[in-house]
Amino acid sequence: MSLWSWSYCIVLAVVVPYLSARGLHGSRAEELSRIELYANLCASLWVLAAIGFLVIKLDGQTMADVYVTTAPLERSGAAFVVWTLAMAGGGLLLFGGSHLLRHRLRLPGEETALTRLRPTRAAETIWVLLVISPTAGLCEEFLYRGFFISRVGAIAGSAASPFMAAAAAAAVFGLAHAYQGWLGAVRAGTIALILAIPVVAVGTVLPSMAAHALIDAAGILWLWPLLERRWPVDAGAPAPAP
Fold first, then answer.
1. d(C-alpha 89, C-alpha 72), whole Å
2. pTM here?
3. 4-30 residue pLDDT tens
4. DSSP-assigned letter for residue 60
């Protein structure tokens, strides 16, 4: 693995989580409207993806080398749909389970930074549906399930390397979502493991991209409000004593 790849893996594992937390918790973020915040987040993801693409080119590789390929799905177009829906369903179950866990344990509500991303107007809903969710699906899957897993796999260089790489990528992905609080970070890391399955088992990240976009859109716009009506979380309630 080249120095470029090494360096960018470190950026994804250390720098990106720090900047994500700072960007969403800082005073500057409080001054932005939701749409401005959405635009900044999308721009950041596309810049990170563009750098990852440049690193691949500097390594003399193609997108297929980071699992962005249709080749494993060419024999069965239905496989893409099955993988996508299965992972989206699993991700949404985890999303709902984490909310129920908050309710049962009387944990505080979602982190302020995550709540800031939730749309409150029609224009913001359109942004989440048509811009934020597709951007997260494409860019984050390319970076964490495509680029990162391929690079860690090259380091491990053993029969178990795909699984090791998927676990490492999931840990880094969870860390990048630490601004959502510890439960949100664990949820993101667990969903990341689900999204890594077709990468490890089949060799393509494309269903993961589609599933990620569906999880974000359905989770934020439909499931989250539904769960709050069914199982409201008291933000001021103390956690039960151990």
1. 22
2. 0.90
3. 999 999 999 999 988 887 766 655 667
4. T
